[in-house]
TrEMBL record:
It is a multi-pass membrane protein. GO terms for biological process: amino acid transport. The chain crosses the membrane at residues 20-43, 55-77, 83-103, 183-204. It comes from Priestia filamentosa. NCBIfam families: HEQRo_perm_3TM. The keyword Ion transport does not apply. Its main location: membrane. One of its GO terms (cellular component) is ATP-binding cassette (ABC) transporter complex. Belongs to the binding-protein-dependent transport system permease family. Pfam families: BPD_transp_1 (PF00528). The lineage of its organism: Bacteria, Bacillati, Bacillota, Bacilli, Bacillales. It is found in: Cell membrane. This is Glutamine ABC transporter permease. Keywords: Amino-acid transport, Cell membrane, Membrane, Transmembrane, Transmembrane helix, Transport. InterPro entries: AA_ABC_transptr_permease_3TM (IPR010065), ArtM/GltK/GlnP/TcyL/YhdX-like (IPR043429), MetI-like (IPR000515), MetI-like_sf (IPR035906).
Length: 216
């Protein structure tokens, strides 16, 4: 083990550059998947004829596929039908597709947890379905969704490491390049990136706990 050589300034700078890519890909994927997942979850909850059934099938298919397979599909299979995406865009697309399906279930479950009596009371008071949904149901459901949503975001951040298979220059890929220079760097480098992942993910979990305590 060579901690001094592994933690040279050049290596640390290279790792932080990879970590920046990890955070960038995760951040964009989180925003997109939250928006898409929320829309899909609301549409499924609304039980719109045909639309809800089609979305349910799509969500179930995606949720039961390995994320690694979706990454391969976006990067290697889509070009076969004329859709060529770069490495970063492919990784973001794959993560967004997978996480949107997961988040849509969280949103749908959160909406279903609201008592039907509140919906009936709101409708009987003259509110439209849209007013009831966005003014009464959704705000309450969001409070209950915070912990599982943040947990899903933590999983997404960790899942960015799977994009190493398509050579996305993220943290794990950077670590592999450094480890290839000297076998004595392997343990120190992987310990270092483990700490980096832990710090960010633990910070997110603390945020989730604080939000949960505020909304309890």
């Amino acid at each position: 083990m060579d901690f001094i050589g592994a933690y040279s300034m050049d290596h640390l700078q290279f790792l932080f550059q990879g970590f920046f890519v990890t955070l960038k890909v995760a951040f964009i994927s989180i925003i997109l998947s939250f928006v898409i997942g929320s829309i899909v979850g609301i549409l499924r909850y609304a039980k719109i004829p045909f639309v809800s059934q089609v979305l349910a099938v799509i969500v179930e298919v995606i949720r039961n596929l390995p994320l690694l397979l979706i990454i391969f599909f976006t990067y290697f299979a889509l070009p076969e039908i004329g859709i060529s995406l770069g490495i970063t865009v492919s990784a973001i697309a794959a993560l967004t597709i997978f996480e949107s399906a997961m988040l849509s279930e969280i949103v749908r479950s959160g909406l279903k947890s609201i008592e039907k009596g509140q919906i009936e009371a709101a409708r009987s008071s003259g509110l439209t379905y849209t007013q009831t949904m966005f003014g009464i149901i959704l705000p309450q459901a969001l409070k209950r969704m915070v912990p599982p949503i943040v947990s899903q975001f933590i999983s997404l951040l960790k899942d960015t490491s799977l994009a190493v298979v398509i050579a996305l220059p993220e943290l794990t890929h950077s670590a592999q390049i450094i480890n290839g220079q000297n076998i004595n760097y392997v343990l120190p480098i992987f310990l270092f990136i483990a700490v980096m992942y832990f710090v960010v993910n633990y910070g997110l979990s603390l945020v989730a706990r604080r939000l949960e305590s505020k909304t309890a």
